[in-house]
Amino acid sequence: MRILYIDTSSSYLYTSIVENDKLISEIKEEFGQSLSEVALPRIASMFDKNNLSPKDIDKIIVVNGPGSFTGIRIGITIAKIYAWSLNIPITTIYSLEAMAISSKNNTYHVPILNARRGYVYTAIYDEDYKEVLKPCHILLTDLQEKLKDIKEYEYISNDEFDDLDVNSYSPDMVKVVNYFKDKENINPHAVNPEYLKLTEAEESKL
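^ thats the sequence. predicted structure below, dont judge the formating
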């Protein structure tokens, strides 16, 4: 099985092609605000480099949040177009799941993204990557309270936090793809962002 993985939920483009549990090609590169302009051409170049076309893909796994509102939409749009136009099976995962599963440490995993104003996007997974706290938008102080009864855990992030010892995140895309390769497929039209909070525009209407 040949699987395309796409994660544009941050300022980074994380994408890969994995075939039969082996890495064919990957991109791990930060593009910042230019991500919307370069994501599709870079993915296309990854296909060209390996003499493949999108129709050679058997499944797509795309990260649908949480993270950058704009970034999430970029990856989802690319994945939905591929899946719908070429009739390729597609499924979604959280960025937080990918962060936890990429870890090689035998401890509880706490992926954490800065959501500003004292809030974070986070979740808690045990040593076997089983969900202890489902992905959520929460005050950092409330997260720390939930962690008081857990003896050993690691924070995982590429964001900076004062007074937190954080392990940097570099996705192990083969490991992530292999973990989710059998996850149930969904209709491409049902692939939507999972922001875990209202956008600022939505909040302003409340």
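The beta strands are 2-7, 12-19, 22-30, 59-63, 90-93, 108-116, 119-125, 131-139, 153-156, 166-167.
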